Amino acid sequence: MDQDIFNTKGINGHIYLYEQKLLIERKGFLAAGLKSKELSFNDFSSIEIKEATSLVNGFITFVIPGKNEHIKNAIKAGTDEYSITFRKKSNEDFLKFKSLIEEQKEKYISENQSSNEKRYCENCGSELNTEDKFCSECGNPLSNEKDIKTDIDKIISNEKNKAKKGGLLKKTLMVLLTLMLPPIGIFFVFKSKRFKNTGKIIASIWLGVFLLMRFVDTDDKNTSEVASQQTQQEVVEDNTEKPQSTLSKMVSGLSQSDKSEKPKETPGEMEIKEYIKYLVKETLGTKSNMGYKKYLGSSISKSESSITIKLYADENFTNNMTRGGINSDSKDIFVKFFNDRNDYDDLVLDWYLKLVDQRGNEKVSRVLLISFDRKNFNTVNWDNIITDNIPKIANSYWAHPAIR
User: Cβ distance 315 to 290 under 8 Å?
Assistant: First the structure.
């Protein structure tokens, strides 16, 4: 038998670590009913460990997808074939053992990938192709995802808070101007010698109408209800763009024209992080149709010549239309990216939307993943491609059940 790298003993078994496998050996009365198990590094997706205390035993569990994901205490671990329980004095040994197993697993998977052996998804156990950037069965990213430290919910929340602060300030200024300017103007009319009695009478009537509109209850129930609904909608949808006045549009247009001037560098010469933002803005704009920020973050791997871009999708009337819209937007990004750049060969688009679960809770979740590499991209006639065929020809494609 091969020499083990490390081994340690628990209450209901002994674990041995080898170069390409693990052995859980069962001996003794406390292991009754449990069988010895030999595991390859592909058999388990992760390792869960809970340290022991003076009163409660600890345990280490090798998580097998679909079998033992819900081991929460030492009692359940004591009856699980892929778990070992241990006492407080063994905490340090098992923590060290966990680190060694993870290092050996990572080394083993890396060596097997380089020798074109089979790969498996750590989340669901499905077999993967060598070029896959994510699992097409469950959508679990296989690389680069750890480099993206973007909290999607946090981005959306911060964006809402900024919009609320800006909207509240504007509303406060408008209220102050509405309340203060007319009385001040009328005051100066009465003080001025240029206005005769007729002008002062007109100003007095105008002031009376103004005060009547501002402070007298007209008892128009329907009007108040509509106003209340509009106010509530503004609070909920406060991050959507508001209609602009003609003057605002002119000013905005001038400022936008200044900002949208072409960069001095060509797209291919731009620094990659700046280019990604430029790419999203040029192809999709800055906001989704629900007012959320389009660009949510990115991950760049020079060693793998790969880029992953996180994006907020547009919503539509049906699931098919939503998915079709995402596929169409993805096509535009792929075409521009591979035509603009020749320094990266893989592009993954990671799309998000706000979903509602069975309990009515809302959460921004991943809804679609799609990837193309340059070699595959160059085989497609993008002027004639039908959008519905994109999922069939992509290197990898996954869609959330909610939009299938």
Answer: yes
Question: For residue 256, is pLDDT > 60?
Answer: no
Give the global pTM.
0.49
- CA 139, CA 308: separation in Å to the nearest integer? 14
The whole-number pLDDT of residue 146 equals 43
How far is the C-alpha of 58 from the C-alpha of 188, rounded, in Å? 82
Using the 8-state DSSP alphabet, how is residue 358 labeled? T
Query: What are the backbone dihedrals phi and psi of residue 381, each rounded to the nearest 5 degrees, phi first?
Result: -85, 95
Q: Residue 326 region, left (φ>0) first, then alpha (ψ -120 to 50), else beta? A: alpha
CB 322 within 8 A of CB 353: yes
Sign of CA dihedral 243, 318, 391, 383: negative
List for the chain the helix, strand, coil content (%; round to 5): 45, 20, 35
- Could you tell me which of 304, 345, 295, 349 has the C-alpha nearest to residue 156? 295
Looking at 78-148, list the stretches that DSSP marks H as alpha helix, in order from N- to C-terminal side: 91-114
Beta bridge mates, 59: 50, 85
Q: Give the per-residue pLDDT at 107.
A: 83
Q: What is the pLDDT of residues 201-248, one digit of tens each?
A: 666 676 666 666 655 544 444 444 433 444 444 433 444 344 455 445
**Residue 311 burial by CB count (10 A; 0-12/13-18/19+): exposed, middle or buried?**
buried
Please check the confidence at residue 155 and state whether its pLDDT lies above 90: no
Percent of the chain with pLDDT over 70: 68
What does each C-alpha distance from 75 to 28, 59, 79 come to in angstroms?
A: 17, 9, 7
Residue identified by tokens 């081991």 is 71
Count Cβ atoms below 10 Å from residue 63 Cβ, excluding itself.
19
355, 365 Cβ separation under 8 angstroms: yes
Residue 280: how many CB atoms within 10 A of its CB?
22
Euclidean distance between CA atoms 204 and 186, whole angstroms: 8
Give yes or no for a contact between 98 and 52, defined as CB atoms under 8 angstroms apart: no
Q: In the predicted model, is pLDDT for residue 314 greater than 50?
A: yes
Q: Which structure tokens are listed for 66?
A: 């679909």
Residue 125: both structure tokens together:
């156990």
